[in-house]
Design brief:
The chain is α/β, with parallel strands linked by helices and 285 residues long. It folds into two domains: 225 residues, TIM Barrel (Alpha-Beta Barrel); 51 residues. The protein contains nine helices and 13 strands. It has a nine-stranded mixed sheet, covered by helices on one side. Strands 3-6 form a two-stranded antiparallel sheet. Strand 11, helix 7 and strand 12 form a beta-alpha-beta unit. Helix 3 runs parallel beside helix 4. 39% of the residues are buried. Iron/sulfur cluster (SF4) binds next to helix 1 and helix 2.
């Protein structure tokens, strides 16, 4: 499996204490993505010049020019001595392959830490882009009695294979209007809407961005859709800017700097309308 990160999470990526594998590669390019290093499938060097005074000395290939990194040089670098030899904190490589057998072995070692209701979550990126490896890992883990969740943008044409292979599906809904979806996520959403309306049991997660999907017209479309598909649970996540340092580390500009979250009060008011309609909804942040 191609991953860009892994780590513990509590109460956010499924029930209980969970170990999360973040799979690299995504078919969406959401303007506000909090994990920009998740999008490209290939490994990417993240550069944090403030974390080390010796960054230029850790590279023998003259890729470091002050606070800038020549990423073309890094892409073809034969030694990656900055990380492998010097372990310089200014450099972080996002992306590595981890065999399924290693995931199973790691999980067995951590099993006692999951408690009664925790487990493993596969997130991303978009994990279903690695569907065969994803299903294989989930099957083995569940055979061993481990609770397995997946977080997906729900765009996969193989979506119907997920419910029987995972204990929990956490699906995203970015917006309903197709043109808006193309503008904010870079792709068509017809497959997403069909998958979400398929009657599958799921937790639905909706990011809230004041200027994009929380304008009155789109908000009402989201409300109408949720009242029709009636997901088991709906979680709202107000836009945050926690990913900004990662954009800088990748040498990219974050489009989300132009946008704002709705206020907590506005989000709660919307959430309450869904609760009044019989949907278990909550604002997560
Ligand atoms: S990956 Fe190679 S070229 Fe890039 S900073 Fe590290 S040592 Fe230098």
């Amino acid at each position: 499996m191609n991953i860009f990160a892994k780590g513990w999470s509590h109460g956010f990526d499924g029930p209980g204490r969970r170990f999360v594998y973040y799979l690299k590669g995504c078919n969406f390019h959401c303007l506000w993505c909090g994990n920009p290093e998740s999008i490209a499938a290939e490994p990417e060097m993240m550069f944090y010049p403030d974390k080390s005074r010796f960054a230029s000395q850790s590279c023998a290939h003259e890729a470091v020019k002050g606070a800038e990194l020549d990423r073309a040089t890094c892409r073809t670098c034969g030694d990656r001595a900055c990380i492998d030899r010097w372990r310089d904190p200014a450099f972080e490589l996002a992306g590595c392959d981890i065999p399924t057998a290693e995931i199973i072995a790691e999980t067995e070692q951590r099993r006692a830490l999951f408690g009664d209701d925790g487990g493993v979550t596969f997130s991303g990126g978009e994990p279903t882009l690695q569907m065969d490896a994803l299903l294989k890992a989930a099957k083995i883990l569940r055979q061993r009695g481990i609770h397995v969740a997946v977080e997906t943008n729900a765009s996969s044409p193989r979506f119907s294979e997920l419910p029987g292979n995972f204990d929990l599906l956490i699906c995203d809904l970015k917006c309903v209007t197709p043109e808006l979806h193309r503008r904010i996520a870079g792709t068509d959403n017809s497959q997403v809407l069909a998958n979400l309306a398929s009657g599958t049991k799921m937790t639905l997660r909706v990011p809230l961005i004041a200027e994009l999907n929380f304008i009155a017209e789109e908000r009402e479309k989201i409300y109408d859709m949720l009242m029709v598909i009636k997901p088991e649970t709906v979680e709202f996540l107000r836009l945050h800017q926690l990913g900004l340092p990662k954009y800088r580390a990748l040498g990219q500009v974050c489009q989300a700097e132009r946008f704002n979250p709705p206020t907590r009060e506005q989000a709660e008011t919307f959430c309450q309308r869904l609760r009044n309609g019989g949907i278990a909804a909550q604002v997560l942040n």
